[in-house]
Amino acid sequence: MSLSELLKTGAVEKFESDPEQTKNKVEISKGHLASAKKMLGIEEWEWAYIAAYNSMLLASVALMHAKGYRARGADHHASTIKFVQAVYSKKFSEELLLALDKARKLRNDAVYDTPKVISRSQSETLMKLAETFLAIALQQLETS
Fold first, then answer.
1. Which domains are delineated in the chain?
2. What pTM does this model have?
3. Taken in order 142, 130, 1, 20, is the CA torsion positive or negative?
4. Cα 108 from chain centroid?
5. DSSP states of the chain as a string?
6. Model confidence over 83-110: pLDDT tens digits?
7. Cβ contacts of 89 within 8 Å, gap of 6 or more
């Protein structure tokens, strides 16, 4: 889905972002990544996974804010990911963007529907992907 389609459907809107908001999202993203590492250390696979996903999501929100956009509505997680896919597809690998959306779905399942659905290997894999995602997001924020 393109940015113009996201705007047309109301999933995303323009807004006047404050650079401090973007900075805060980055700091929160870093904090979630650190929490994910701690959760792995105590074998809390689901919480590690959720924290790693949250790190990726907040880095995505920072990217949106830096461009002067924000997600709207109940599907704001999905809209945020679609925005990153539309605007930053040349900066993030397809594998990384697909992993982010898959993580969104599995995180939702773990939080709301199915206990013990996330394995150690899934958590460790997402942790590595979250580190890569945040590093690329930080690069993009420095150049924007």
1. 3-143 (1.20.120.330)
2. 0.96
3. negative
4. 13
5. --HHHHHHHTSEEE----HHHHHHHHHHHHHHHHHHHHHHHTT-HHHHHHHHHHHHHHHHHHHHHHHTEEE-STTHHHHHHHHHHHHSTTTS-HHHHHHHHHHHHHHHHHHHT-TT---HHHHHHHHHHHHHHHHHHHHHHHH-
6. 999 999 999 999 999 999 999 999 999 9
7. 97
